[in-house]
Specification:
mainly alpha
């Protein structure tokens, strides 16, 4: 084994020993930060994505300049003092912030060519995949820039111990450090908390709203994971069939006219109906409305999934990792012939001009006895010059009045939302970033920051 490479491993171990406190808490802190950023831009996905893209450029700028410190050491055959390193990191942070702030305020044309390419690379994907990719990159680079700074700090604090690193080539040193840091990042992102709560079988029973209790989100995630693992295949099948029956009945259509899912959605659908046992009555109504909109063919499978993912993000306690884990452990090996949501016609596309955001508004605001079909039908009526409501009474007039009231409700909500957005600047000028200061008196308590150092040992 190359002794110089062993020194890189030792440096990472020293970082782990000196700074890393709880890997699971660090990962949870990053998830909380992402959630806060999403709420900070009023859950506007486009602004959220743009904010994360600029943060990613910010982190990449810092990383590149931190690597230049190591290059300078090898070139000069001298490891700088801790004081010099801390000053350099401070200057690097400030210059990177200034560089990205200028691009945020005046346009990404102020980015260099390489950063422009990185910035635009996220346009190659869309929807949920785009958000997942950019969130994943954000977390990895946030961790990487912090850990790299700590590695540099550790090496500079014991130059005699690590002096043989200076004999490595620049690229060799950077690659070895990168590989070791990514190993630590994987440990953090895939860390699992040791359960601290003794769960009883009656921890959750259908009809009990646990969201009203003072239970932390991570405990709810653990409880839901246990619930998913405990529920039998026949029970899940019954829940899915019940949801199908309720959906077609509420929409007033025959079962034979309803749309269904491909078999590939059985794990996903199973987890959705189980999650509905874990949300408030108000949020459950929105999930139910989503199924109703699906069976009448107003949304495709992919749109159904995108809506559910938004609901999970906005209205539940679940984090992405728990949600994906549950889809792997759920007992969904039921007989497709006995499950009403499968083995029927599948919608490949929807031929209408209604945006997904408008459909979301319909789902969130629909209540009472109205059907989703009637809302879409009335929208067509209002756009048509050939149809008039001549009767003073009867169903047609009530339907029109009901739709007008519903549309006004949506309009008020949208207008209020736009007014709030226009009054706020979504750019994160300070990036919620903390400089590298290792103050021994600093609390270990997690504070909502984009840097992970509040979870490091001090």
């Amino acid at each position: 084994m190359n002794n110089k490479r062993e020194l890189i491993k030792y440096a990472i171990l020293d970082v782990d020993k000196k700074y890393i406190n709880n890997k699971f808490e660090i990962n949870s802190g990053l998830n909380t930060t992402l959630k806060n950023k999403y709420e900070k831009v009023d859950k506007d996905e486009e602004k959220y994505i743009e904010l994360l893209r600029f943060n990613i450029i910010f982190y990449k700028s810092i990383i590149k300049k931190l690597e230049s410190i190591i290059e300078m050491w090898i070139q000069n055959d001298l490891i700088s003092s801790t004081e010099s390193v801390e000053k350099s990191i401070e200057n690097i942070t400030n210059s990177s912030r200034e560089y990205v702030n200028k691009a945020m305020k005046q346009g990404n044309r102020f980015l260099n060519d390489k950063d422009k390419k990185i910035f635009m690379s996220y346009e190659n994907t869309s929807g949920l995949k785009k958000i997942e990719k950019i969130e994943n990159d954000y977390k990895i680079l946030n961790l990487y820039k912090d850990i790299l700074g700590m590695v540099i700090n550790v090496i500079s604090s014991d130059a005699k111990k690590y002096k043989d690193i200076l004999e490595m080539g620049m690229e060799e040193a950077k690659i070895d450090i990168k590989n070791e840091i990514f190993g630590m990042i994987n440990e953090i992102l895939f860390s699992v908390e040791t359960p601290k709560v003794e769960f009883k079988d009656e921890a959750l029973v259908e009809g009990v709203d646990i969201t009203g209790c003072e239970i932390a989100d991570d405990e709810k995630c653990l409880s839901f994971t246990k619930y998913v693992s405990m529920i039998s295949t026949p029970e899940i099948s019954v829940k899915i069939n019940d949801m199908f029956r309720v959906s077609v009945q509420r929409e007033g259509i025959d079962e034979d006219d309803a749309f269904g899912f491909n078999e590939t959605y059985k794990d996903y659908l199973s987890c959705v109906v189980l999650l509905m046992d874990y949300v408030s009555a108000e949020n459950r109504r929105v999930f139910e409305n989503t199924f109703r909109m699906f069976v009448i063919g107003k949304i495709t499978e992919s749109e159904f999934e995108e809506i559910i993912e938004r609901l999970i993000r906005d209205k539940t306690f679940l984090d992405k990792r728990t949600w994906l884990e549950c889809q792997k452990i759920v007992k969904s090996d039921f007989n497709m012939q006995n499950n009403n949501f499968f083995g029927r016609k599948v919608l490949s596309n929807v031929d209408d001009d209604c945006t997904l955001n408008k459909k979301m508004n319909i789902l969130e605001n629909l209540d009472g006895d109205s059907t989703i079909s009637s809302i879409f039908d009335m929208e067509k009526f209002e756009d048509s010059d050939e149809i008039s409501f001549e009767e003073e009474g009867g169903f047609a007039k009530k339907l029109k009045l009901g739709f007008s009231s519903f549309s006004e409700k949506l309009k008020i909500k949208e207008d209020d939302s736009e007014k709030e957005k226009s009054d706020k600047e979504f750019y994160d000028d300070e990036f919620e970033y903390d400089d590298y200061e290792y103050d021994e008196d600093e609390s270990d308590e997690y504070e909502e920051k984009s840097s992970i150092k509040s979870k490091f040992k001090n």
